[in-house]
Specification:
Layout lengths: L1 H19 L3 H29 L1 H20 L4 H29 L2 H32 L3 H5 L1 H15 L6 H4 L5 H24 L4 H23 L13 H31 L4 H7 L1 H21 L2 H18 L12 H24 L6 H41 L4 H7 L3 H4 L11 H36 L17
Helix pairs in contact: 1-2, 1-4, 1-5, 2-3, 2-4, 2-9, 2-16, 3-4, 3-7, 4-16, 5-12, 5-13, 5-15, 9-10, 9-16, 11-15, 11-16, 11-19, 13-15, 14-15, 14-19, 16-17, 16-19
């Protein structure tokens, strides 16, 4: 439900905007409200699962997610939809880390990597089917059914989960006081961090609101670290990060999300707005990436079990960088035959890395802290995704502003007209051509110049993503084989 929801909402946004008369800012908050709620609560929700029972928290999350989804489907206005999406994010925060915690508690060390690989494959199957399902539903029914689809899925999940899942919890944590003060500081710090990242997309990284928000988050995390170091029963024991492999795994998951969300978001803009494909056609053309994820994620789990997580992490990140460099040669009219092989490579790389990085985080945490480990994995995923769209978006927007005038004049647009169009570079950075709004004789050259500027800027963004991936490949060399239960590990 959660992974399907992540992709279908992005495809449904244009239809939502038309039906509810929403502004671009309003549509952004349909996603941002959910993202904020998840990021703020997810580690605390993982701790709650460890304390009160992972099965119980999981089922509460499923029911809450379904109810919030139904409310989203019935939303009468964009404001109501944003509010219900925030509630949906709260339920998602309960649901997501519990899935990994249940797996961590259910499987022995020798089978954990393969189990996580299957978990990752199922998650990626939802990602792969999301764009196609959403495109079909939006074109033939209504965007509201994108949310209603979660209700029958939730009914199945609750029935099967109540029957199959064994309850597990940290019996020691059940006797301890819940660190409410630490939770409050952590939630405020995460809110400030994600808020600053989100606002940077519209205000820029140098804006006083963004700088103040990011500075506040840094101060908050420092205070949280002081609190957890002195607390008798910490929410997030800092000793957990003494395990180098776990710490590196969190950073690698963040880098993975940076590349994944950035590629999917901006590639969708390119395919739909520049190439003119419909939502369903776009979903089909991203299948080499998303479909390969389904195959590669279980393979990543198997390789991690046999070779340790370091080889799939290092090779996967290096291959991801190569794939990004391959996409950095996109032009306005690049043939799809020159695109899909790179999508195939990126999908294979992402599948390897997701399974191995998840196993590195969850497998290097003790079983009693499985919920917290799942929360760390999902927090890295959410923050990395927000950073990917924000940072790469800033790179793309800056490049469009710098080159739009030259690209317009190269296609024959008069310099005076080009100067009038340059202030609207923000729309061009979203793949929107101002061609329909100029006199008929200038529409073709304006469209060509705008799309050339967008495509060349997108190429630069892909180069930045490739550099991040290559840096992650080097970082992966610090990951060691082994689980939390092996001799020599730090006691927690």
């Amino acid at each position: 439900m959660v992974m399907l929801d992540a992709t279908v909402v992005a495809i449904a946004n244009p239809a939502i905007g038309l039906d509810l008369h929403a502004s671009l800012s309003g549509l952004q908050w349909v996603t941002n409200a959910y993202l904020l709620a998840v990021a703020i609560l997810i580690i605390s929700a993982g701790k709650a699962g460890d304390r009160f029972g992972r099965k119980r928290i999981f089922l509460c999350g499923v029911v809450g997610f379904a109810l919030a989804s139904a409310a989203c489907g019935f939303a009468p206005s964009i404001g109501a939809l944003i509010a219900f999406r925030a509630v949906q994010g709260c339920a998602g925060a309960l649901l997501m880390p519990s899935t990994l915690a249940i797996i961590r508690a259910a499987f022995p060390e020798r089978l954990l990597q393969q189990a996580i690989g299957i978990w990752a494959g199922v998650s990626m199957a939802a990602v792969a089917s999301g764009p196609i399902v959403a495109g079909f539903v939006v074109e033939h029914a209504s965007w509201r059914w994108v949310f209603f689809l979660n209700v029958p899925l939730a009914i199945v999940a609750v029935c099967v989960g109540a029957w199959v899942i064994a309850e597990s919890r940290d019996e020691q944590a059940a006797k301890e006081r819940f660190d409410l003060a630490g939770m409050a500081v952590l939630c405020v710090s995460l809110f400030a961090l994600v808020w600053g990242i989100i606002k940077s997309q519209s205000l820029g990284w140098g804006d006083v609101v963004v700088v103040a928000s990011l500075a506040s988050s840094a101060i908050g995390f420092f205070l949280f670290a002081l609190r957890e170091r002195e607390a008798a029963h910490p929410l997030l024991p800092l000793r957990l990060f003494r395990r180098l492999s776990l710490s590196v795994g969190v950073v690698l998951m963040l880098m993975l999300a940076f590349a994944l969300f950035g590629v999917v978001f901006f590639l969708s803009l390119y395919l739909q707005r520049v190439r003119g494909y419909s939502p369903v056609e776009t979903g089909i053309r991203t299948l080499p990436l998303t479909g390969m994820l389904v195959f590669a994620a279980p393979l990543g789990g198997i390789l991690s079990a046999r070779l340790g997580p370091r080889p799939p992490l290092a090779v996967g990140m290096a291959l991801l960088g190569i794939g990004m460099l391959g996409l950095s040669r996109l032009a306005w009219r690049t043939d799809y035959g020159d695109i899909w092989p790179w999508l195939l490579a990126i999908g294979f790389a992402l599948g390897l890395v997701q399974a191995a990085a998840t196993q590195t985080i969850v497998g290097n945490a003790p079983v009693r802290m499985a919920g917290v480990a799942g929360g760390l994995q999902q927090t890295a995923l959410q923050i990395g995704g927000a950073l990917g769209t924000s940072v790469l978006g800033a790179v793309l927007s800056g490049r469009v502003r710098a080159t739009l005038f030259v690209d317009l004049t190269r296609t024959g647009v008069p310099r005076a007209v080009a100067r009038l169009i340059v202030p609207y570079s923000g729309y061009v950075a979203q793949g929107v051509s101002p061609g329909p709004f100029v006199p008929a004789p200038l529409r073709a050259p304006v469209t060509e110049g705008a799309y050339n500027a967008f495509s060349s800027a997108l190429d630069v963004a892909f180069v930045v993503a490739a550099c991040v991936a290559f840096a992650a490949a080097l970082l992966a060399l610090f990951v060691r084989r082994g689980g939390a239960s092996e001799p020599g590990k730090l006691p927690l």
